[in-house]
Amino acid sequence: MTDKQYSAHEWLNEALWIEKTELKIKREYAEKIKPDDGAIDYSKDRIQNSSSGAQEDRLLTYTMACQAVEAIEKKIEDIKRIRQAMIDSLESSEYRSILTARYLLRMKPEEIAREMNYSERQFYRKRNKALDLVFEKIKEVDDG
User: Fold this and answer.
1) What is the domain partition of the chain in residue ranges?
2) This prediction's pTM
């Protein structure tokens, strides 16, 4: 893979990397601080305590963590829409299919090759050509 192809590959994979890093960390944090379900066990004597403020703080923190997760999910969806539009702008339906399967549907190269009746070597040649075209389009947008 050339430097240009690798740049296009990384650009197309941006949503995946955000999902594997930022989103994963935020989801884990939100799950970790998730307050209990608030169910009350009426079989036990209840004692009034001052922990309601702590529970409210925890609920507020959890709500903010969930909002952060939603914001990252929206960012990922926006990135995917931009990537899909770029792929859709390619003239070759063959290249569009390859890139959509690989970068948006996250299919493995051998799966794509098998479904498209290519050898893996043919798949990689065609994918690399498609990446060259994507790189040129990205460059046009950056230069424009």
Assistant:
1) 3-28+56-143
2) 0.78
